Amino acid sequence: GQIVKLTDYRPTDFVLRGVDMTLRLFEGHADVVTILAFERREGAAADAPLCLDGDELILESIAVDGEILPPSRYEATPDALVVSELPESGGFEVRLETRIAPEENTKLMGLFRSNGIWCTQCEAEGFRRITYFPDRPDVLAPYKVRIEAEKAVAPVLLSNGNPVEAGELADGRHYAVWDDPFKKPSYLFAVVAGDLDALHDSFVTMSGRTVALGVYTEKGRAPQASYAMDALKRSMVWDERRFGREYDLDVFNVVAIADFNMGAMENKGLNVFNHKYVLLDQDIATDTDYAGVETVIAHEYFHNWTGNRITCRDWFQLCLKEGLTVYRDQEFSADEREPTVQRIASVRRLKAHQFPEDQGPLQHPVRPGEYREINNFYTATVYDKGAEVVRMIATLLGEADFRKGMDLYFERHDGDAATIEDFLACFEEAGGLDLSQFALWYAQAGTPTLTVSESWDPKERRHTVTLRQSLTQGAAGTGTEPMVLPVRFGLVGGNGEDRRAEGDVSGEARLKDDVIVLTGEEATITFTGLSDRPYLSVLRDFSAPVMLEHQQSEAERLALGRLDPNLFNRWRALDDLIAEALTSAARRPLGDEEPALKSAIVDALLASADDDELAPAFRAQALTLPGESDVARQLRENVDPDRVHEVVDAARVAIGAKGLALFERLSTGRPSAEPFSPDAESAGRRALANTALAYRCAATGDPAAAVAQYRAASNMTDRLGALAILAHRFAGEAACESALDDFYRRYENDDLVLDKWFALQATAPTYEAVETVERLANHPRFTMRNPNRVRTVFGSFAAGNQVAFHRPDGAGYRWVAEKLAALDRINPQIAARIATTFRAWRSFEPGRRAKLEETLRQLSEIKGLSKDLQDIVDRSRK
Ligand code: B3K
Ligand code: ZN
């Protein structure tokens, strides 16, 4: 495949003035007529041909200004249409006809059908599967779209913008016309047609305009969209209050679809969602599902300004919309829920997904410099590290100036296809500072290490803190210059309050309120005016995405775990101690029984779990041990996943045994009669109880408490919480089997719930899970056509089952590779995404490493692999 480079960017030779499309939908095919109004760009060569993108297209006809073109004037292939001898200046109109087959579109890019519903996905390069087009994000135009279909099959016809006309046609057909006055790139185009139910509501914007809201679902499921509708209205209010952003069209529609490659898509005025992020009620969805719906609804809605009104000049600028919009949805969730708990969840996510990516062969900077397949760059680095970079800008500027910078960005770039440079310039102006060194965060890949050491001078009552940063050159080879690290900190006294102290900086850093901004390799801050030695609480709220090495004693960390007024750091003090203890225990050989956690650490953990002053959600987070893959990442090399599992599980049993009385108390006698509410506080109480139940069963080795909760559960959170314990800790036992059977019978008609049944079995930490997933893949309800189903079987097995996927005989690797090779022919995007789990091959012990390497080699040699999968496999082998 061709490599696309950021440095090769140049504007198109033709400016697009408008798009007028007609889609005629039939059983088996769709006819697409596209009229494009172009103008040769000033300064473009007079003989430059018009080059349009295509993908698996067949051209039916082409006319320019009403004249059918002779074959000598153009060249059409499935991937491109080149038209020559066009007017040397001024405007002209190109009319194109293509015929496509949505039913055969298993890649789910472009126009496809999901359970009979016609639906589109165009980001990044799907529009070119519908019509030939300059399919790149810097080509912006207003669109007018007419859809025609049989009325009985598709009574609902939706597109972007506002509805302007609708009516009847012959033969039981009808049509609707939509007009989107806001100029947009083609990746935001959408059409939906089908027999859909809807939930309707309205919203009055801050300037008093009424917007009609609709959430469309498959037949009979509209009531399950009410939480999504509620989340949408809360998002609209929040964006007005927090960022002054008002919605712009007369309608805003959301459609929930069963077969969808991603979570959702922010098409202008017509967001299309994986139905997993829309449909729920207490019987089918967990609290985590509720939080997911809230976040994704908010995220897509927020794109209306950060992504749609201001879009990206090219795909290298993807983080301009994604990192910023993730930052916005994180802030929304923090405001709607519990800020510390939200921040803990985001940091866990970053460490679990982005850190390994940034430290392995698929490493790339937040703004990549080149790509072969852009769909492989919708990554944790672009999204989550991209959000961290925006968060650092907010930290550096402070709340007021950050808002000023955002206002300036919206004002200056509304209607533009912008770049990271445009974005940064707004904050330089608003904050009166130079962000040129800061911009390295977009260019240099890798996770910096921040080393902190301190010393107390009792005579002078001086505390000296030394900060050092370093970055190793990784696969991306993008350099190791010192970055700008904002390090939020506090000096905590024995009473649990932050001390005030004067700070004197030497070296390349500056001190601004409670933030040390480290700009050089090393700096030292000397704090004076202290009466006794403080506890240094550093990198509060994870103010920079770095690996922290703080040379601090266990006693000090335990004290911070008890006292730190910054709750995030209170959590992290213990979490880091635990992670380090598990990691060093995992270095000892399989079977070694020396406890990983000292009793002081276990006691501290139990003390926070028992602290009624703390929010239950926080206590549940505190009790959640680092995952097996986190421990594996910290080991860095020679990883034996069986040993990691053994260590983490033994720690869980030990904690459960020591805190048994507490866990019994927390997991029983809950007000089960209390009516269900999905709010964060109630969810937190359920999370704490379910976490306690898991510890209790770990300690007793008895499934009875989980069986009892499974049976008595009045909501999915409690039912699935119990089932997860049975499926993972008691896999293969009668209690587990009968609960799984019961669950299947209860929910076999609901694919969303069935996904949970598939996923739990695929992640059971036993060698037999390899045979289980093979059985699941042959289950009548398994299909490679549904991305959710594929993700819950192949994806959760490969990424979430360290024991079985890494079975020492290599059976897990072979199984996944074989399935991916088959999936690649149906849906390459999903195959490529799941294949990323192979990237960690170098970190394993020699036996597994050799088998992983061999599996990757075999995959790479398969003939006719998609560009998507080939790209991931080739880069992973580097
Ligand atoms: N922008 C889409 C993702 C598109 C992925 C294309 N492979 C959803 C989102 O980030 O909001
Ligand atoms: Zn997004």
From TrEMBL:
Q: Which family does it belong to?
A: Belongs to the peptidase M1 family.
Keywords of this protein's UniProt record, alphabetized? Answer: Aminopeptidase, Hydrolase, Metal-binding, Metalloprotease, Protease, Zinc
Boundaries of every Peptidase M1 alanyl aminopeptidase Ig-like fold domain copy: 446-550
TM stretches of this protein: none
Domain Aminopeptidase N-like N-terminal, residue spans: 92-188
Q: Name one GO biological process term.
A: proteolysis
Q: What reaction does this enzyme carry out catalytically?
A: Release of an N-terminal amino acid, Xaa-|-Yaa- from a peptide, amide or arylamide. Xaa is preferably Ala, but may be most amino acids including Pro (slow action). When a terminal hydrophobic residue is followed by a prolyl residue, the two may be released as an intact Xaa-Pro dipeptide
What residue stretches are annotated with the Peptidase M1 membrane alanine aminopeptidase domain?
A: 227-438
Its protein name is Aminopeptidase N
Q: Does the keyword ATP-binding apply?
A: no
Q: Which cofactors are required for activity?
A: Zn(2+)
Q: Which Gene3D superfamilies match?
A: 2.60.40.1840, 3.30.2010.30, Neutral Protease Domain 2, Peptidase M1, alanyl aminopeptidase, C-terminal domain, tricorn interacting facor f3 domain
Sequence ranges assigned to domain Peptidase M1 alanyl aminopeptidase C-terminal in this UniProt record? 555-876
EC numbers listed for it are 3.4.11.2
What are the GO MF terms of this UniProt record?
alanyl aminopeptidase activity; metallopeptidase activity; zinc ion binding
